[in-house]
Amino acid sequence: MTIDAILQSAPLTGLDAAVDAASRRIPPLWPLASHVAVNPFLGQAEETLAEAGARLGRIGGVPVAMPRGWYLGRIASGEITQADLAGALAACPHAGRPADVRALKAAAARERPASAAVPTVADLAARATGMDWPGLVDERIGAWAAGYFDEGQALWAAPRDRRAWAAFRAHATHDLTPEIMGLTGFAAFVADAPADPREAIARAASRLGLGPAAAADYFHRLLFSLGGWAQYARYRLWRAELAGGTDTTIADLLAIRLLWEEALFLRHEAAIGVAWTEARSCHEAPVAPGEAELVDAILQEAAERAAQRELARTLATPAPAPADTRPALQAAFCIDVRSEVFRRALESLDPSIRTLGFAGFFGVSARHRRFASDVEELRLPVLLNPTASTRSGDAGSARADLAARYAARARRAWGRFRLAAVSSFAFVEAMGPVYAGKLLRDALGLARMPARDDPAPRFDPALDPAARIGAAETVLRAMSLTEGFARLVLLAGHGANVVNNPHASGLHCGACGGYSGEVNARLLAALLNDAEVRAGLLARGIAVPEDTLFVAALHDTTTDAVSLYAEDAPAPGHAPDIARARAWLAAAGVVAQGERALRLPRASGAGDIARRARDWAEVRPEWGLAGCKAFIAAPRRRTAGRSLEGRAFLHDYDWVQDDAGGFGVLELIMTAPVVVASWISLQYYGSAVAPEAFGSGNKLLHNVVGGIGVLEGNGGPMRAGLPWQSVHDGERLVHDPLRLTVCIEAPREAMTDILARHEGVRALFDKRWLHLFAIDAEGRLAHRYAGDLRWEDVADAAQSPALAA
Hints:
The chain has 31 helices and 19 strands. The termini are far apart. With 805 residues, the chain is an alpha/beta fold. The longest helix has 36 residues, at 249-284. Helix 3 packs across helix 16 and helix 13 packs across helix 15. The protein folds into four domains: 3-43 and 117-284, no CATH class; 68-111 and 290-311, no CATH class; 319-399 and 448-622, no CATH class; 400-443, no CATH class. The chain is globular.
C-alpha cells in the first residue's frame, strides 16, 4: 500500500488506535510544584505482574521484581515459608508455572535471564555506525522540550503559540547539531515533513513497515524511551480528560520520535534492514510471560503472603478496651503512613485521647489561591475534579495582599537580574560578600522555618447554607464521626518543611495534590464551627455538642511539630483545652521523633530530627512513605495499641453506620483513597525494583529542568519516580517492595458489589496489583479476595503466632 493510500483510508484510524493504546501505557508525571506519587504500572493495570514483566522487558528491558537473591535470602531465613510458596504457586493464573514448590525453589536458585529491550532503529543505526544515535535523539528532543514545556524556570521562554509538533519542526529546521554529527539533510527533512502529525506518523509507519500488529507495541517502545517527557505529556492528557477535554501533546511527541526513526532508517536501511525486520517481528508477536516472568511473579506473591501473615498476627494481638468516657481530645489525621507513628505516640500519653484517620484533603476538593497569589492550586486527589473555589484572606487583608505582591515581584525581578547573562558575573563580584551571612546561616541550618500562616481560607464564591450543611454531613459520615464528640476536635493536615529538595512537594499530602493540608483542614474546621451548619446537622441526625470546638492543625512530618490554627475561631472558653492539647502534641512529637530517628541514617536521636529539615546537604530529611505495605479501613479499636511501624495507611470506617446509606462510604474508600494509596505503594515498589526505569536517580546529581522535573546530571531524558535516596539508606533498601495489602472491615457482599460496578478498581485486585482481605467481627483477616469476585477463607493457622516460627 502506498503512503497516499494510507493517508486516505481506514488504516489511519487503526494507527490512531495504536497511538492511543501506546499513550495510555505511559504513566503521567506531575510537575515538581505539585508532585504526587504515580503508579508506574498504570498502563499495565489490566495485566498480571508476569504479563507486565514480559511487556516491559520487551519495550525497556525493565525488571518488575527483585533479584532472585532477595527472595532466596528470605526463604533461607524462614521469613518466606513453604506455605507462602505453595499458596503463591496455587494462586498463579498462568499455564507453564513450576509444577510444585520444589521446582519453584530450583527455578528461584537460577539467575534471572537478563532481558534487553527490542532495539529501535536508532539503536540499530548506532550498532552499524558506532555513533550514539539514541543519545543524540534524547539530547536534542530534551533540549527542545525543556524550553517548550518550561513552567517558569527559563529566563527566555520558548513560544507557546503552537502545538508541540509544529514547535519542534520550527526548532529543528534551525538546529544544526544533527547535521554536524553526521545526519546531513535532517533540517530539510524536518521542513518537508507533513504539517499534520497524524500524517507524519502514518508516513513513518509505512516506511518502517509497521503493521497493525506491531504499531502499538513499537509506539510504546518509543514513548518509553523518552522518559519523563512522555510522562509529562501523558499528564497533560490526563488533566485534560479529567476536565472533559483532550490533549494531543503525547501524540505529537510520538510523531517527533518517529521522525528521527524515519530519517535514520532512510539513511542506514542497507546496513540495518535485516536486523530491523527481526526487531519488527518481535513487536508483532503477542506478549506472553515466560518461565522467568512466572517465577518472579510467584516469588513476589510469596513475599507478600509472608508480610500478610505478620500483619494478621499483629492485628490478632489483644488490645485494651477504649474508655467509655467522653474523650478529652479527638484528633483526625491523614491516613498517610507517617501519621500512624504520631497517632500512636499521641494516644499513649493519655487514655482520654482518641485519634481518627481520614484522607488528608478532608473531603474539601478545592481549587485554591494562596494569599497574594493568582495561581490556582488543586488541593484534592488527582483522581478528582475540584468542586469549590477558595482563597486565603478577605477584604480586610487587601492592603497586606498588595504589599506581599509588590514584595514578591521585587524578589522575582532581583532574582532574574542576578541570573541574567549580562549581569550574573558582575553580580557575584559586587554583591557576593553581602550574602556571606545568609550562606553561613543556611549552611549551619540556623534559618527559621515557620509553618505556612496565610490568612484563614474561605470559599469564594461562598457556599449556600444547604451546600455547607451537605458538605459537613458528608465528611462527618465518611469519617464515621457522628457521635461522641470531644470538647476539642483537631483536624490535622500534614506537610513537610525541607530545604534544597526539588521533590519537596512529594513529601506533602498526596490527597491534597502534592500540597500541604492546612488549607483543607482550616476550611472544614470553619464549616463545622458554623452555627447554621450545626443546626442543619442536628436536623439530619448528627448532634454536635455546643461546647465542641473544631481546630485546624498542620503536622510537619519532617520534624513532627504540630501547629494549631486556633486563631481562626477564637474561643476563650477553650483556652485550657488548647493549651493542654499543645502540650500533648509537643510530647507526642518527641516520642515520634525518637522512633523515626531509629530508621534515619546518622540520626543521633529525637533532637537531631529538626536539624535535618534545615540542612542543605541532607538527602534524607525523612523517609516519606517508604515502607508502606498495608491499608486498613476499620474502627480504630482494631489497630489502637498495636505498632504498625509507620507502614500502614489507617482509615477510620464503621460499616454498621454505613449500612443504612447503602455502603456509599465504603464505595468512596475503595475507589479513591485505596487507589491513591496504590499509586503511592507502586511508585515506591517501582523505584525499588527498577530504579533505572522508574526512579529518578541520584539526588546528588539532580538538576531541575523547566521547573517540571529533574535530569540526572546535565543531560539525558528527564527522570521520573523517586530518588534512590528515598528508598535506600546507602547500604540496603529501606522500602520492602511489596504490593499493598488492603484490609477492610465490611461485609464481603458489599465489597463484591462495589468491585463488580468499578472495573478499573476490580482490575487492580483481580490482577494482584493490590491484595484485599475482609476483617471479621473479631478483628482477624478472615477472608482473602481470590479474583473474579470470589473469596476464600484464610486458614486458621495464618492467625497463629506459631506459624512464623
